[in-house]
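Course exercise 7: structure representation. Students receive a sequence record and must write out the corresponding structure in token form. The form below is the worked example handed out in class, using PEP-CTERM sorting domain-containing protein (269 residues). Read each field label carefully; the graders check that inputs and outputs are placed in the correct fields and that the protein name is recorded exactly as given.

STUDENT ID: A-19
EXERCISE PROTEIN: PEP-CTERM sorting domain-containing protein
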Amino acid sequence: MFKLFKGLVAGTLLTAGLTLVSAGQSMALTLGGTATVTADNHYGFFSGDKDGKSLNFIGRNELGSKGSVGAYNWSSPETWNFNVDSKDYLYMVVWDDQSVDETWLGQFGFSNGAKLTSKSTDWEYMTSKNSNPFTRASTVAVADRDKGFLAAGDRFEGNVPKNGELAQEILGGTWINAINRGANNGQTGPWGKINGISDTAQFLETTTGDKGRGNSGNTHYTIFRTRNNVATLAGLPAQAVPESSSTVGIVAVGMLSAGAFAKRKSKAI
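STUDENT ANSWER:
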């Protein structure tokens, strides 16, 4: 009877485009995800647990101020495909070039049809204790730079902070409500409308310790985290039906494939 019930659960998850992995007393759900994001000026996109002890790097934008498509690094978004555990959270690590203004913008979709955007009601942020990657850029050897696009003659503007540094920041951070600077409807300056991202997504302000905007006071970076885990965001339970006694490994592959993150960059002018 239990085997029949377990089969029905697995079949339902297959239909929803999920991966089901059972071990011992709980079943973890893995969803496929697609994110289309941009930032003024730079970001690193991660998934991971709430304490930041297990972070999975998904992608980042250009290494300098110029866009691989569009005039600036924020002019056109990147699109990333990834897999995420239902108990994990999404993170955006964002920093600026200490000039003009800075925000980030994005939309996210999951393999069960659920959607999420950069809205202040769904995200919280903290300001780092460590320095802005832009201020460290000149100390990074060329061989140690992140992989990515850097236009000829453009200035390198910093690496994404490493997982160990981020884990310390996240665990000891003070989290507060994200700040909405306006919708992606063409009316929010200086960014206007970013094609490829929903009009209802909000530009979320990246904030430094001294609240400086667009000046040399921006000596830190900002970590954004979803307020809830992916299970809650996607309308799924954090854990599926408890397993009985023995450890059973079940891998049900539906609309997505297990393994390493698949990355796809898509640009729209």
